[in-house]
Amino acid sequence: MTITWSAQALRDLHAIRDFIARDSEHYAQLQLERLISSAERAADMPTRGHPVHEFRESGLREIHEGSYLIIYNLNDDEFQVVTIVHMKQRVTRRHLS
Q: 59: phi > 0 → left, psi -120 to 50 → alpha, else beta; which?
């Protein structure tokens, strides 16, 4: 399955990395690697994630990686990472654009 990253998801990755890097470049890089690796594993078994509660009708699914939710969509043979949010955040339509 092909993995694609939305512009929002790429912005999220950079923001997460920059935030953590303020304290530790090392841990920022580790978290980035964990998020990417988790998305790659999920693409191998895309139905393992569960529906995003706030947007059940949308078909979006989510998996957890540490303190983050990786929200993705399945289209034919494409696994698209839509956004990545901290679990303390409420997922809103703003995250999905």
A: left
Token couple for 36: 């990417």
For the CA atoms of 23, 63, 3, 9, the dihedral, rounded to the nearest 10 degrees, stands at -50
Its pTM stands at: 0.87
Q: Which two tokens stand for residue 12?
A: 């999220």
Structural domains in the chain, sorted by start: 2-96 (3.30.2310.20)
CA–chain centroid gap for 25, Å, is 20
Reading the block at residue 5, the tokens are: 């990253």
User: Could you report the per-residue pLDDT of 15-69, keeping only the tens digit for each?
Assistant: 999 999 999 999 999 999 999 999 999 999 988 898 887 776 678 999 999 999 9
pLDDT digits over 68-85, tens only? 999 999 888 899 999 999
Measured between alpha carbons, how far is 32 from 83 in angstroms, rounded to an integer? 14
